[in-house]
Amino acid sequence: MLTTCYPRPTLLCLPSNHSPNSSFPHRVNDLSMQPKSTGISRRLVIGQYKQYHNTSIDLPLNRTQPFGLILPGPINSSSVIDQSVIIRPTSYEILESGMILMKNHINLNEQVEIVNICHKLGVGAGGFYRPTYGSGSKLRLHMMSFGRNWHPETKYTQLYRSDGSKPPPVPGVLVSLVQTLIQDARARVKSPYEIPSMCPDICLVNFYSVVGGLGLHQDNDESYEGLTKGLPVVSISIGDSCEFLYGHTRDKFKARKVLLESGDVLLFGGKSRLIYHGVNKIIPDSTPLSLLQKTMLKPGRLNLTFRQF
Questions:
Q1: Where is the signal peptide (predicted)?
Q2: Residue 303 belongs to a domain
């Protein structure tokens, strides 16, 4: 079931008690997001940082130089050729019972704010790192936890990482945003009981390089009570697009595919809470030009997944 709203209306207003210090504005019609096609100006801008596109994620993480999301140096505005602004419509698609995709739902200013928050916290204590298994193999992404530390082997059992750092709490402005996203999703499904309400106290922040990915898996490490209630996972995508897989088994060839683009929100809870899902591939050079200009975000996909333990 696909519902399209065009032109984009005012979507969400954060609760009146959200932090006045946040730069999140009230959600308004956003006319600044550029089309996803690779245009001349996109190639010119990204070409200045071509050396970053082929950076191997297998290089050892330099502990003296934290992993950040922002490219060094300013973008040369003289090399950017203006493109006509094309408004991307906002749409809502029910993928499964309790699973809804809200396209273009996070506007440009909010995306910029999220990038800045994650970059600032990511270079600090408890910031981005490469999760490593006991065998020495590493996940094909950089990760940071808010609220609770998570590790692919120890799950949520360890309060501190191996380097002694403790994860920062989920930023309050993001908690407010997620709760509002859930309210909007609940209004779009047949019954609000398909997607239960929740208050996120955990956020896993993943950054995938252009060669990153993640195999099919279930998010089943939260509390038995939360899983039984089907409390939803709320996923926000920023930066490069990805080919996202989901299905009822771990069989990649039986999984369905959907394109997740910058500004998209995916929620899965209720009957779909334990659905298998993964990132098959990242689409290079697909970050919206306007986001690249405002953030200098590294090539790759930033993904925030919120849940309640």
A1: none
A2: yes
Residue at 13 is within a domain: no
Dihedral sign computed on CA atoms, order 69, 117, 8, 29: negative
pLDDT in tens, the chain (309 residues): 444 444 333 333 333 334 434 555 445 444 445 444 444 344 444 444 333 333 333 334 444 478 889 888 665 444 333 444 456 788 999 999 999 999 999 999 999 999 999 999 988 877 888 877 767 677 788 989 999 988 777 888 877 776 778 888 999 999 999 999 999 999 999 898 999 999 999 999 999 999 998 889 999 999 999 999 999 999 999 999 999 999 999 999 999 999 999 999 999 999 999 999 999 999 999 999 999 999 999 999 999 999 999
Task: Consult the annotation and say whether 26 binds a ligand.
Answer: no
> Do the annotations mark residue 58 as ligand-binding?
no
Q: Is 219 annotated as a binding residue?
A: yes
Contact 144, 167 (CB under 8 A): yes
